Each structure stands twice: as structure tokens, then as C-alpha cells.
Amino acid sequence: MFEKLGIVTNIWAEEIENGARFSDLMVEFGENGFKDMEVREGDYLHNSEFGQLIDDLEKVMPSYTDSEFKNICDSVDDSVRTRRDYDSKNTNHHELFDEVAVFARKATGLTLSYAMSHPWLSEPNDSGTDTQQIIIAKKLAYILCPSSARLRLVDLDTEGEIDENTAIANIKRYNSILPEYPMTFAVENARQSASFTLKLAVAGGAKLTYDETNTYRPDGTTLNTPAEFWGSVKMDDLTSVHFKQKTEDGVLSEVGDGFVDFKAIKEYLKSGNYTGDLLLENTATTRSLIDAINSREYLLGC
Questions:
Q1: What whole-number distance in Å separates Cα of residue 197 and Cα of residue 187?
Q2: Does residue 34 register a pLDDT over 90?
């Protein structure tokens, strides 16, 4: 199971800040067996050459209808799969989409998804702006992997009592946006308990990205016990499981001993015939590949 481990790209934050290229790290990790990659938005990403490409794509999106942009995504993907040069003549931004095609060829054999912070648990201040943010995110998720697109939202801002009806309505609305762009839509447990987040996700028709580390407080107590969560979840409701370790010192740079019982998680996943991906999300260092390989070896030994 853990031999198919993938990664969340924010583990590259330190290296990108030190000048490493996102695409080079992507290729290197792919060559070392980490085939599933969740592109996590953040400052590190915007400071990379790939972040600049994403910014440029966002700027030109209004120049194309939703259908036109989707057709461009599909054409780029088709050129990569058939191993032929991409013809950008049907776009108004030749150099930009040629650059997208170059990146897509480097990502051959990888499955890329997209994730961002978004306050999905609360009522948006501006519904129009909120909708536009989801439209952009869905288009980015789709161009990263048209054949298996996925968008994940994590709410790191909403605190206090949650209006369940508002959160569920948000999920349903986000799900309904751009229906012609097929993709998996997911939310992750963050400040709220995993069992509560699962309840909202299922009610809204979304999948859950589960991170057991997020259920642990600094002193090792939990928002809800892992046994409670695993006793209520159906494997079909999960699309991804994140792996990192936490101790009283915080989240570690390599998976090892700590609060999270990885052997127990493995048994839950195996007994339930889980088919989603498994993604490492260690604390970033300047040696993320070594950290990831060591983490994989530790998990394989569970």
C-alpha cells in the first residue's frame, strides 16, 4: 500500500524559497516513485516558476468561454497522451499555452490535483467573488489533470460554532459550478473534527480528504478519537488520506513515531479496500526528497 505513496507539494516550500524549480522537483519525485501529487496553493507556489504560469493562466481565463478553455485543456492533454506537438494556433495566447504543454509533458505519468485554502464553512462576504474563486480553482484543477481532476478545499479560518446548513449549502453550490468540467470535489478536516467534517461532506455530496494528524491537539488529546472516525466513515466517502506525524514539538519533517498510529490506519484502509491516494505532507525542509523516502520506508515497515 505505502509503496504508492504520493506527496503534497508544500513539502517543497523551503527548497523553492532557496531557488529550486517546481517542475524540477516534480520530475525528481516522480522518478523516485511518488506519482500522485497534490499541488497546494500558497506563497511558496506563487514564488515559483510554476506559480507564475498559474498566475498567467488566471489572467487570461476571462478571454475564453468556459467551453473554449476546457477545449484547450483537453487539446493539451491529448497532445501529451499521443506524443505529438501541441498546436496553440487556436488560442490567443500561443506562448502561454505552449508553456502549459511543456509542463504537461514533464508531468507525464503523474497524477496532479489542486488544493487551496478557502473558508467553505462560513457564509461568503461576497457571493460573486466567492463563486469566481471556485471557478478559477476548478479550471486550474482541470488543466492539471483533465482525465482525473480533483479540487480540495481546506478551511483554516473559520472558528467557533459552525452553521451546518451554510456549510452544506456551500459544498452543494461549489459542486454545481462548471458541471461540464468533470472532477472530484473534496474538503479536508482542519480545525473541526474529522467526524464532523465528514458529516458535512457527505451531506453536501463531496468527498473527504482525511488527515488524522489534524485531529491531535499539541498535548496529544484529540478533537475526536480516530476509532470514532473510522467507525463512521465509508471508504467511498474518502478520496485521499494525508500522512504526517505530530508530537508535542509539532509536525515532523519525516514520518516516524508520535501521536498518529500509522499501522492502525493501514489496517483500516486495507480492511475497507480503500482505493484512493495516500499523500505525504511533512514539514518542509531543504531535503524533502530524503525526508519523503525515509518516511516511505518507515510506513512500509508498519
A1: 8
A2: yes
Q: Are 298 and 255 in contact (CB under 8 A)?
A: yes
Percent of the chain with pLDDT over 70: 100
- The candidate with the shortest Cα–Cα distance to 269, out of 220, 233, 244, is 233
- CATH classification for the domain delimited by 2-300, as one of 3.20.20.150, 3.40.50.720, 3.40.930.10, 3.40.50.620: 3.20.20.150
- 296 with 29: CB under 8 angstroms? no
Q: Which pLDDT belongs to residue 159?
A: 86
Q: Does 22 have pLDDT greater than 90?
A: yes
Per-domain boundaries in the chain:
2-300
Ramachandran angles phi, psi of 45, nearest 5°: -70, -45
Class of residue 272 by CB neighbours under 10 A (exposed 0-12, middle 13-18, buried 19+): middle
237 burial class (0-12, 13-18, 19+ CB within 10 angstroms)?
middle
